[in-house]
Amino acid sequence: MKDEIIQKPGRDLSRLLRPKSIAVIGGGWSVAVIKQCKRMGFEGELWPVHPTRDEIAGYPCYKSVADLPSAPDATFIGVNRDATLEVVRDLSARGAGGAVCFASGFAEVADGAERTRDLLANAGEMAVLGPNCYGFINYLDGALLWPDQHGGKRVETGVAIIAQSSNIAINLTMQKRGLPLAYVLTAGNQAQTGLSGLADAALDDPRVTALGLHIEGFDDLAKLEAVFAKARAKKIPVVAIKVGTSAAAQAMTMSHTASLSGADALADAFFARVGVARARSLDEFVETLKLLHVLGPSPDATLGSMSCSGGEASLVGDLADANGLDLRPLTEADAVRVKATLSDMVTISNPLDYHTFIWGDGARMQATYAAFLESGYGLSMLVIDIPRDDRCEDNGSYAAIEAALAAGKASGQRFALVSSLPENLPEALTDQVMAAGIAPLMGLESAIRAARHAADIGAAWARPLPAPLALAGEGEALAALDEARSKEALRAIGIPTPKSKVVDTAAETAAAAAEIGFPVVLKGVGDHLLHKTEMGAVAVNLKTAAEVEAAAARMADLNCRFLVEEMAQGVVAELIVGLSRDPQFGLFLTIGAGGILVEILKDSRSLLLPASRDQIREALLSLRIAPILHGYRGKPGGDLEATIDAIARLADHAAAHGDEIEELDINPLMILQNSVVAVDALLRPRKVSHV
């Protein structure tokens, strides 16, 4: 029933999220809201509302919304679902700024759709979070509409986290990693205000340094795209952790292309397009946000690493390589400068194992760190693990920390302290480290991933802002066209196909082949022959009329017409290029390694539309088969520009006429030395629904 409820346009959430007055309706869970605001030092008005109680947590109670001194900026509604409807109506009538609806039993249950419609009607222009919503925490102003414990503290600046799971939100407040939280916002059922509306509102606070999104499902792609563009304009980086996949997007389709790209691949394509980092774990999510809070996006993907252990240096090398970070060697001048601070027995390299000859000597460690930092990497880091304080004594680690802080602060370079294990960098150090402009990162693997994300965001911001997504309207899929008619459609948009002729009978095939010129390919065509190889409906490299006639005879039982085509020569590589449709993202483009092994190789990239030539080029060159295109082991390369031209024509046509296409599969698109040719195609058109 939830899909019957249409979200209304976003409201102004400024009064709700940054209130000067808070009303709390009900007892039970609502009592905790009053106590949490009091504990966090909220300086505004707190107004408990309860029909029978005189006070809650030392604050006098009001009997009803009508009895409040004025319209509250924010209200936590902690009563049952039926009473919630009445309270929302009364608050809206008084001109309240907004409300959190805690009650469940709305769109998430079978009979809740009507109540949700009533809730939206009663709210009118008033902002509403929920229902079934835990609320939010504003750590900047100490304003909490939050009925439970949390682990955060007041901050002056920090990251805003928006979660579609209240439990994930609670867990994130309990992190002991020093991540400064400005806001923690939960979305609930998103009847009126969804993820995009909350994110947009968080961006309006200049104290927010980065935005973190926990996403179970996209509420509105067009709005989210606009939010991400706004974040970019404000220089606020965004990190998302996206869970779950769309069952609808995995529905059976007839093309190979759709089998390569599930909804998760499209989420990746969306995030890459808009310059949002996608974290795969909460550890990675937190560490990436922390790095971005302190240092912002990286100017490039270069990484410099220092440690006093070869083992740590090796780990850094492996992880950096796996994540595509550039451990570029020190220049000769850099190496001389670093060498002057160390023993002759130390090999100068990146990663740098500076050994323990200088361990415990603060001045010498500072000199080494400062010399290395001058090398100007996109991010430099010092790997250091602090001994546990309950069983161990300080072994000089704190002297190394002090030396690093002094060197980092003086250098002005992008610098991080990284522990190999998350628990080996105490939270108590994080404020001191961040005050020096250095990022304290916990866990080597998450730190390396964070560095990769920071570099990717920096690269995305350096590119032009992409065009808005071409989100298609409603339509109905029609029957697939056979190969011959599919290729006619390709030729109409400028994609080369082989010279060919369609004949009705086997007896005509030899003459058609002679007209085209040998060698040829013979194929059976018909609406029932969508995947011809598996059905024996393809014969290749036929060099004589006799071979053509014999191949046609073998296809006699297929009850089909025949397509005779010239045989492509000088093939360098085979691609699959296709268009498929997703319920949310609409039509999208897939580029991958093609041929009969396409589903085994699974070497593909998906792009949302419209897609630029630069995006197509980047996707093509990211494939594992890309080296073949340039010429491999002495063999000639393929015509890369002609390939990009053909794919770009398809992408442009799809962006302009996407409502008319359900799916299209070109497999293979053969890359030749001086051209490109589509040798097989399957088009499934679409009938547009005009509403």
Automatic annotation (TrEMBL):
GO terms for molecular function: ATP binding; metal ion binding. Residues 487-570 form the ATP-grasp domain. The keyword ATP-binding applies. It holds the Pfam family Succ_CoA_lig. The keyword DNA damage does not apply. Keywords: ATP-binding, Nucleotide-binding, Tricarboxylic acid cycle. One of its GO terms (biological process) is tricarboxylic acid cycle. This is Acyl-CoA synthetase (NDP forming). It comes from Paracoccus aminophilus JCM 7686.
